[in-house]
Amino acid sequence: MNQHTRFNLPICLAVEEDAFSHSDEIIRRYIPEIMGQKTIIVSEQFLIDIYKDKILDISQDFGDAEIVAMNSASFDEAVSIAKKVCIDDVKVIIGIGGGRVLDTAKYAAHISKAVYICMPTSLSNDSLASPFSVLETEASARKTIACKIPTAIIVDTNMIINAPKGQTLSGIGDTIAKHTALFDWKLSAAKTHTNVEDFAYALARMSYDSVYHCDEKDMTSRVFIRILSRALVMGGLAMEIAGSSRPCSGSEHLFAHAIEEYYPGVKISHGLAVAMGSIPACIMQGQSPEGLMSFFKTYGLDYSPASYGITEEMFDDMWYKARFVRKGRITILSEINHDKGQLHEIYSRMVEGK
Ligand SMILES: [Zn+2]
Q: From ligand 1's centre to the CA of 240, what distance in Å?
């Protein structure tokens, strides 16, 4: 993609306790010129109900910003928010929510050229700072579309600590998946006689290392949440610098995409699907998966396909389909044949947890 072109970095990355209650002070410190500009807050109705007081406070702090409850995380919704932004002369969009809200708000800001302030209520994946939005297109189909990264990212550690545990586990999964993604990126570079972007590679590697080697095993502790927040942001920036999702997305992501596209009935979050995919990917790459498996156990991340209703037959088919979901992406899957016997062994090993 656009290697060796310019990239953007957020002006502000604040990871603080109670950051939401003083988000206006943070923005005034970093980007004073946008204070007083017409602002809207994009969120979802259920979050507006849960965090009513907090969101109303933020609205007041930003000049009685209008609160917009989005109807879906779709391309059409992003375009309709962008239309409103352009027609009403809105200059700033604040996205408050999980991945769905942040992706929609980010894309709406991208097409309307508004300043985008990202305020996650949970840490479920690395899209919070990435140059991509995943949006629904038609029916259940979704597409990853390139866009601008946020101008400011404000993480309130108290919010994240109180978010559902599954969301944080999903964020952990998306971070740990970089292990197999980076292997596949190097493999692809070698096959195409190109180089990986060293700086993007280093950032993604550090993102992974900071969580994988973290001494803090309590995922609801402030220390862990701070490390995970920064790891997810660094993953996003690695993609921005590389000009592609390669530093954070390899064969384990192809597996997750195959589930999303062909098995929409399987209810599993993106981060947990890529975590599950990273174990077989690791084995196919000729690496030992034991480190990953024991890491996941430590944090209580369930990687058994059976726990999500995935039978052995489905598992085999998902890996088969993973080969074709992203044309032109070279990973370990392009290098080896589909091996039913090996997948049978891997499936049993994952279900038994050893
Ligand atoms: Zn991901």
A: 14
**Domain range for residue 52?**
12-161
Q: Is residue 1 part of a domain?
A: no
pLDDT in tens, 32-45: 999 999 999 999 99
Amino acid at 238: A
Token digits for 138? 């038609």
Question: For position 148, which CATH number holds?
Answer: 3.40.50.1970
Question: What's the 149 CA to ligand 1 centre distance in angstroms?
Answer: 16
Q: What separation in Å is there between the alpha carbon of 331 and the centre of ligand 1?
A: 15
CA 142–ligand 1 middle distance (angstroms): 14
- Whole-angstrom Cα distance, residue 340 to residue 343? 5
Q: Which amino acid is at 339?
A: D
Distance (Å) from CA 201 to ligand 1 centroid = 16
In this structure, what token pair is assigned to residue 170? 């999903």
| Residue 251 and residue 301 share a domain | yes
pTM assigned to the model: 0.94
User: Cβ(129)–Cβ(236) under 8 Å?
Assistant: yes
- From 105, 136, 161, give the residue that closes a domain: 161
Under 8 Å between Cβ of 148 and 108: no
User: Does residue 4 lie within any of the structural domains?
Assistant: no
Q: Say how many Å lie between the CA of residue 342 and the centre of ligand 1.
A: 25
CB atoms within 10 A of CB 106: 28
Of 286, 263, 293, residue with least CA distance to 342? 286
Residues 6+ away with beta carbon under 8 Å from 118:
95, 102, 105, 106, 128, 129, 150, 152, 153, 154
Q: Are residues 155 and 181 in the same domain?
A: no
Q: Write the pLDDT tens digit of every residue in 278-317.
A: 999 999 999 999 999 999 999 999 999 999 999 999 999 9
Per the structure, how many domains does the chain have? 2
Calculate how far, in angstroms, residue 271's C-alpha sits from the geometric centre of ligand 1. Answer: 6
